[in-house]
C-alpha cells in the first residue's frame, strides 16, 4: 500500500453483521449484564458531539456523550425516536459520531462503543424507518471521531483517533474498500464533495485531498493552526473551508490543490477561543460560509459567524448556544443545523434567524458556587441554582419531599468552604483549583489524569481534609494533599459542598444531578443517593445506587430508569422507574441512605426483589386497557367504589365501580380515537389519568371534561398475558392516588 494513497483492500471481508442471522467469524465477548441507571428526559443530557441531516433536510440525528443517538424532525425539532447501543461503566457507550444516509433510511453511529470485543470499537447501523438496530461493524482501529456518507450514498467513511487514519466502506454491503493509515495524529473530520472526492482534517496539522477513487492527490499543512478540526467543500466543489480547534480563524483553500485562497475576517472577535466547525449554507440568494466554536458574543453566548458571498462578503453573527458549537450542517433549502456542548441543537435559516433550539432538559451547574449552593447539617436539605453561576435558585427538602423555587436565603445552610477558617487548626490553601489542570496544596501539585481539570473545591468543616471535583472524579485529600479516596462521577463535578456534620457531601454534576457521597471512615466517597430536578421546577426524582426511588407528586418517575444490555448484537432494553414502580418505589430507603442508617434495610429489600432482569424478562406483564369513562348524569354521581380483586379474570373487565342510572358513559377506543372523545382531543385536558398494572404496562387517554366536572369514573380491563395479575396503581396528574388508602389498589377521588 502506497503511503501517498488510500490503498484498495485486497481481501474484502463481510463486515455487516446483520441482526439476526449474521455471520460472525469470531465469538464476541459480552457487554455487562448489570443494569445501568440512566436519566431520560426526551432530550440529550450530555454534550452533543455531532449532528447529521438527510439530503432532503427532513430528519436529523445527534450523537451524544449521554450514550444515545436521537432522531429529530427538522421542521419543528420534535423527537422521533431514541437509538441506544450496548453500554458499560464510565464513558463506555458514549457516542462521538453519527451519519444519516442521504435518503434518510439508514443511520451510522459509533464512539467509545463495544470495547469488550477485543478492545476494538464497534460501528452500529440502524434502520431509520423500522427504528431498530440492523447491523454492526466490529474491529474499528481506534475511536471514531467522525462519520459521513458520500452524497450519492455509495460510500461511507470514518476518521479515527490515534494514528489510525481514515477508512472507506461500500455502503451497500459494508465491505471496506480503502484505507489510509499514514497520519501522525487523530483524524477529526472527513468530507465528500458531490463528485465523490474526499478531504480530511487531522491534528497532525495536515489537510488531505483524495480523488473519487480515494487516491491521495494533495497533502499540505493547514495554513492557520496546528489543529485543523473540520473541512467542508463548497457547493460547486471549487473551494475547501477549514476550521481550527486552536485558532479563531477560518481558511478557504483551493479544492484542486489545497492552495490558500483567502481568509475571512475574524479580527473583531475578541476573547479567544476557536472556530472549529465550518459549513457552506444557502441563504436563498447565494451561498454563505459559516463557522462556530467556543467564540462568544458580548453576552457570553456562543455564536455562529456567517460571511456572505461565498465567504468574501459582509460578516454577521447569530447567538445560538451556552457552550461550544461542535458541528454545523447545511440543510436543503437553506440555513443550517448546529449541535453544541450545552447540550443543545437547533436550526437557523439563511437569513440568520434562530428558528428553534432544543436544549437539554437539565440544570446548568457550571460555577454553581458563585451563587446559591448550600446544604443542611444532616444533608437532607440542599439549596442550588439551576442556571450557570448558581442563578435560578431552588431548595430541595427530602424531609418534606418538596422542591421550592426562588426560596429565601437560609443562613443555617452551609456553603462550600474554599479557604481555611481561623478556628481550624490546620490551614489548607489550595491553589489553581478552578477550571485548571494543575491544582496544588501550597506548592505541592495534585496529580490529575490526562485532560482532567479541577472544577470545584470544598474544605471539610474540621479542616483535616478537602474535596476536589474534577471532570471525571470526586477526589478526597488530607490537609497535606495526600489522596485518601476517589470515585468516578458520570459528569463533571461543577460544585461540591460538605455538610456541617462532616458525614456527607453533595456534588453538583454536569448531567444535571445532585449526588450525595458519604465521608464516614472506611466508606469514603460511597455514593448514597442522587437527585434529578427537572428544569420545569415541578418534577423531581431521587434514587439510591440500588435504584430505590422517590419522586414528586407531579411526576418524575419517568425521568430515570434501567438500561439492560441484551448482548453485543442487540440494542439495550430501556425500563424506566414507572415500569418497576412497585418493586423500587421506596421513599423511606432514599432517606435512610442519606441519613446513614439504610444499609440493612436496603439489603433486606434487595433480597426480597431478587434479580431485576429476571423479574422483567421471565414472564409477560399484564396489559391494561381503558374501556370507558363515565360522567355524572342529571341526578348526581356515584363515587368511585371497589376495584376488581387482584385475581381478576383475563377476559372479563375489571370494574372500578358499578354503573348507575345517573351515569353517562362513553367508550374509549384508543385505536381510532373514541367517538365523541377524539373530537376534543386537540384541547389541553384539565386532568390526565393513567392506570398501571403489575409493574410495567400503562394505559392513558386525554380529553376535555365538561365544565364543572368534579368526578370521573374509569372502567378498565386487565388482561393476563401469562405472568399473572397483581395490584394496580392509579395515577392522577402523575400522583399515585392508588396508595392513599382506597380499597384493593384504588383510592377514592
Protein topology:
Elements: E1 36-39, E2 48-53, E3 59-64, E4 68-73, E5 79-84, E6 95-100, E7 106-111, E8 123-127, E9 132-137, E10 144-149, E11 155-160, E12 166-170, E13 176-180, E14 187-192, E15 198-202, E16 206-210, E17 216-221, E18 228-233, E19 239-244, E20 250-254, E21 260-262, E22 277-282, E23 287-296, E24 302-307, E25 315-321, E26 325-330, E27 336-340, E28 344-348, E29 354-359, E30 373-375, E31 381-387, E32 391-397, E33 402-405, E34 430-431, E35 440-441, E36 444-445, E37 454-459, E38 465-470, E39 473-478, E40 483-488, E41 493-498, E42 504-509, E43 514-518, E44 527-533, E45 540-543, E46 549-551, E47 560-564, E48 573-576, H1 581-584, H2 587-595, H3 599-609, H4 612-617, E49 623-632, E50 663-667, E51 689-693, E52 697-701, E53 713-719, E54 728-732, E55 735-736
Main sheet: strand order? 41-42-43-44-45-46
Overall pLDDT confidence: 85
Distance between the termini: 76 Å
Strand content: 35-45%
Q: Segments where pLDDT lies below 50 for 5+ residues?
A: 1-27, 634-659, 672-697, 740-749
Query: Which structural class do you get from the secondary structure elements?
Result: mainly beta
Using DSSP, what is the number of strands?
55
- How many DSSP H or I helices? 4
For the report, how would you describe the main beta sheet?
Answer: 6 strands, antiparallel
Describe the structure.
With 749 residues, the protein is mainly beta. Helix content is 4%, strand content 40%. It is built from 4 helices and 55 strands. The strands form 14 sheets. It has a 6-stranded antiparallel beta sheet with strand order 41-42-43-44-45-46, covered by helices on one side. A 4-stranded antiparallel beta sheet has the order 2-3-4-5, with no helix packed on it. A 4-stranded antiparallel beta sheet has the order 6-7-8-9, with no helix packed on it. A hairpin with an 8-residue loop joins strand 34 and strand 35 (440-441). The longest helix is centred in the C-terminal third of the chain and has 11 residues, at 599-609. 47% of the residues are buried.
Amino acid at each position: 500500500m502506497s503511503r501517498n494513497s488510500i490503498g484498495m483492500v485486497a481481501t474484502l471481508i463481510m463486515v455487516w453483521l446483520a441482526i439476526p442471522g449474521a455471520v460472525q467469524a469470531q465469538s464476541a465477548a459480552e457487554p455487562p449484564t448489570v443494569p445501568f441507571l440512566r436519566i431520560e428526559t426526551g432530550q440529550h443530557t450530555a454534550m452533543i458531539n455531532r449532528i447529521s441531516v438527510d439530503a432532503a433536510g427532513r430528519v436529523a440525528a445527534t450523537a451524544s456523550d449521554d450514550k444515545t443517538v436521537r432522531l429529530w424532525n427538522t421542521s419543528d425539532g420534535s423527537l422521533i425516536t431514541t437509538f441506544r447501543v450496548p453500554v458499560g461503566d464510565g464513558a463506555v457507550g458514549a457516542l462521538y459520531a453519527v451519519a444519516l444516509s442521504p435518503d434518510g433510511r439508514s443511520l451510522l453511529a459509533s464512539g467509545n462503543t463495544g470495547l469488550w470485543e477485543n478492545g476494538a470499537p464497534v460501528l452500529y447501523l440502524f434502520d431509520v424507518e423500522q427504528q431498530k438496530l440492523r447491523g454492526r461493524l466490529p474491529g474499528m482501529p481506534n475511536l471514531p471521531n467522525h462519520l459521513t456518507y458520500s452524497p450519492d450514498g455509495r460510500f461511507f467513511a470514518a476518521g479515527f483517533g490515534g494514528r489510525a487514519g481514515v477508512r472507506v466502506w461500500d455502503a451497500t454491503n459494508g465491505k471496506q474498500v480503502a484505507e489510509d493509515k499514514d497520519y501522525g495524529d487523530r483524524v477529526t473530520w472527513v468530507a465528500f464533495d458531490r463528485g465523490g472526492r474526499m478531504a480530511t482534517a487531522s491534528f497532525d496539522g495536515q489537510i488531505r485531498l483524495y480523488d473519487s477513487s480515494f487516491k491521495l492527490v494533495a497533502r499540505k499543512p493547514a495554513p492557520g493552526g496546528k489543529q485543523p478540526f473540520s473541512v467542508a467543500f463548497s457547493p460547486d466543489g471549487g473551494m475547501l473551508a477549514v476550521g481550527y480547534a486552536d485558532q479563531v480563524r477560518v481558511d478557504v483553500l483551493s479544492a484542486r490543490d489545497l492552495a490558500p485562497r483567502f481568509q475571512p475576517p475574524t479580527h473583531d472577535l475578541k476573547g479567544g477561543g476557536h472556530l472549529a466547525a465550518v459549513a457552506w449554507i444557502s441563504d436563498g440568494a447565494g451561498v454563505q460560509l459559516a463557522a462556530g466554536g467556543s467564540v462568544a458574543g458580548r453576552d457570553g453566548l456562543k455564536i455562529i459567524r456567517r460571511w456572505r458571498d461565498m465567504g468574501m462578503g459582509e460578516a454577521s453573527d447569530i447567538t445560538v448556544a451556552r457552550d461550544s458549537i461542535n458541528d454545523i450542517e447545511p440543510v436543503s433549502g437553506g440555513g443550517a443545523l448546529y449541535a453544541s456542548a450545552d447540550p443543545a441543537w437547533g436550526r437557523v435559516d439563511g437569513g440568520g434567524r434562530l428558528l428553534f433550539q432544543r436544549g437539554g432538559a437539565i440544570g446548568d451547574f457550571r460555577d454553581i458556587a458563585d451563587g446559591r449552593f448550600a446544604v443542611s447539617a444532616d444533608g437532607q436539605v440542599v439549596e442550588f441554582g439551576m442556571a450557570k453561576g448558581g442563578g435560578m435558585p431552588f431548595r430541595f427538602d427530602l424531609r418534606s419531599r418538596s422542591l421550592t423555587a426562588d426560596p429565601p436565603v437560609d443562613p443555617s445552610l452551609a456553603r462550600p468552604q474554599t479557604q481555611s477558617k481561623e478556628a481550624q487548626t490546620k490551614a489548607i490553601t489550595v491553589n489553581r483549583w478552578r477550571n485548571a489542570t494543575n491544582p496544588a496544596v501550597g506548592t505541592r501539585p495534585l496529580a490529575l489524569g490526562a485532560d482532567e481539570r479541577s472544577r470545584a473545591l470544598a474544605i471539610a468543616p474540621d479542616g483535616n481534609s478537602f474535596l476536589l471535583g474534577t471532570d471525571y472524579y470526586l477526589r478526597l485529600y488530607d490537609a497535606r494533599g495526600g489522596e485518601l479516596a476517589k470515585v468516578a462521577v458520570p459528569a463533571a463535578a461543577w460544585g461540591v459542598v460538605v455538610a456541617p456534620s462532616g458525614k456527607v457531601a453533595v456534588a453538583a454534576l454536569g448531567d444535571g444531578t445532585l449526588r450525595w457521597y458519604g465521608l464516614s471512615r472506611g466508606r469514603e466517597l460511597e455514593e448514597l443517593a442522587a437527585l434529578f430536578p427537572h428544569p420545569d421546577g415541578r418534577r423531581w426524582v431521587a434514587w439510591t445506587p440500588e435504584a430505590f426511588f422517590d419522586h414528586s407528586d407531579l411526576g418524575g418517575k419517568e425521568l430515570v430508569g434501567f438500561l439492560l444490555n441484551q448482548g453485543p448484537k442487540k440494542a439495550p432494553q430501556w425500563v424506566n422507574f414507572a415500569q418497576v414502580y412497585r418493586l423500587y418505589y421506596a421513599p423511606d430507603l432514599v432517606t435512610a441512605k442519606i441519613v446513614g442508617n439504610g444499609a440493612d434495610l436496603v439489603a433486606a429489600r434487595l433480597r426480597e426483589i431478587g434479580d431485576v432482569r429476571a423479574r422483567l424478562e421471565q414472564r409477560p406483564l399484564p396489559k391494561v386497557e381503558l374501556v370507558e369513562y363515565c360522567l355524572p348524569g342529571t341526578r348526581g354521581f356515584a363515587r368511585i367504589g371497589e376495584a376488581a380483586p387482584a385475581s381478576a379474570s383475563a377476559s372479563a373487565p375489571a370494574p372500578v365501580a358499578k354503573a348507575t342510572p345517573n351515569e353517562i358513559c362513553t367508550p374509549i377506543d384508543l385505536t381510532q380515537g373514541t367517538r365523541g372523545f377524539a373530537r376534543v382531543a386537540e384541547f389541553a385536558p384539565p386532568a390526565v389519568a393513567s392506570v398501571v398494572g403489575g409493574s410495567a404496562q400503562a394505559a392513558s387517554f386525554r380529553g376535555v371534561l365538561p365544565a364543572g366536572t368534579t368526578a370521573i369514573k374509569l372502567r378498565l380491563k386487565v388482561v393476563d398475558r401469562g405472568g399473572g395479575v397483581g395490584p394496580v396503581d392509579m395515577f392522577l396528574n402523575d400522583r399515585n392516588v392508588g396508595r392513599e388508602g382506597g380499597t384493593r389498589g384504588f383510592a377514592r377521588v
